[in-house]
């Protein structure tokens, strides 16, 4: 812009666009008014409006403008006198390595909407690895892509993939496998078949073939997360080894009635008349409580407690195998034989005879 007859040349730059003006004098405000450059309360003018102009002076006007800024996912309107995005970034105090949607030298007049993502510390955990990094990625999906982590359709992500990245975020990817299988083996019981043998007694049995348990395999489908099974469902079973059934023969014949045991003295041998009966009764009362058929299993038998050697050695075998099976008279008969040879010394209760 040139003013006729002006004696002072002024350089005027408005929002980065430069021009030359000439004026006879006055103040910066007068120059701007004559150049039809309106100045708002938020505009930045250098030098100040009341400054007197001089030849060769440079006047800069940065108009205040409202710029829509999306800062880390939050929309806001910022009033700035910066002409370029670079100045806006500096005004907001944002780190130089922030990610901006347009180049730093872009004029703000041509970039009404600006997206800015500041660097943030993020931890990505996947496949047994932990990746701690600083990123300007916008979303969780972007962070995973930066870390080279691919997410399968069944995998679980601790934060939705579309979520905005925030400072100190931890993103964990859990691998899900729904196609695993596991098998278990268990015994398969055998059956027992019976047949009857009429030549065998009812209380007799005979095993023709021993039973052998088989093996059953049960297969389950599994769902695992990071290698750990969290659920399973039955898929099927199959017989690995068939069981071998047992074969048993049982008798059907009744046993004959048992022949009663021969009573003492059943040998037919007759005992002599009892002598010294009162003496032997007294000794028997002491030795066995007067029980002439006692057999306690201690190796001594009958009322007078004969051992087998003494009983048989003195002819007791003619009456019974041991004294407990013989009659009182037969036991006294043998006792009198022993008494005739040895007196009462064999009996511990000899004193009971009086």
UniProtKB/TrEMBL annotation:
The keyword Hydrolase applies. It comes from the Bacteria. Pfam families: DUF348, G5, Transglycosylas. The keyword Hydrolase applies. Keywords: Hydrolase, Signal. One of its GO terms (molecular function) is hydrolase activity. Residues 173-254 form the G5 domain. Signal peptide: none annotated. Belongs to the transglycosylase family. Rpf subfamily. This is DUF348 domain-containing protein. It comes from Arthrobacter wenxiniae.
